Amino acid sequence: MNFLKRFIHNSLQTLKKDDGAHFAYNLGVSFVRFGAALLGVAVLLWLVCITNPADLLGYKGKTQAAVTYLYTEKIEYRGSRGSTQIIMKYHVIFDCTIGSTHAVAEQTVPRSVYSKYEKIGLNTVFPARLYHSDDTGLYVTKCLPLIAQFEYGRTHELAFAGLFGVWCAMGAAGLIGFGLNQERIGMKYPRTDVNLNSTSLTLPDEEVDELLKEFDEAFEKFQANKAAGLPTSEPPRTDRGKQKPDEEQLRLEDRQDSL
What we know:
This protein is α+β, with helices and mostly antiparallel strands and 259 residues long. Helices cover 49% and strands 23% of the residues.
């Protein structure tokens, strides 16, 4: 549950612009917002297919088909104000085979596809692919599955809605990914609402003097030990600030006397 809360919180944060951030960050937020909106459209389209069973094609295999009949249908719609709208539908009837079984398929096709079948002519056998819809039955076409679904969806709005939802989801994934990457890039730059000149990025003078003093003392010890033939490498000090220089000098002289 905590993981889910963190995920929701972090996801919402990616949708919020920050006036003090680098412009790349806010550019990324815009892309994430657009991607989220497109993803919402995809979800709505999928809901349409769920509430109305998705009219998608199932591939049945290759077949040999021939056009046996072509005809058009004119449909008139009258509006509430007396206006008339005319819609033309194009129908094709095929003879085809399913394995060793003969079958007849009648289908509605787009105008451009109808024109192609007119050029092929009646009773001309050609290789095709056979699909099946739970709503309309057999569907014959030369196209591969994805293109066949698009062709079918141009005259069957429900199927086209589902396919368009898939495209929207793919586009949303690309936009959200690009937006999140821009947000990460923007976070690498300094904020525009912070004055770097007013911040201290160097050590105070007192600490600098203390470090220089320790360095001078260590160098003097190194030189003295080297001149006396003593080891020049010693463990680091753990008594910083506690031992006075005079005491350290006496310790060095005692070691020299013992030799």
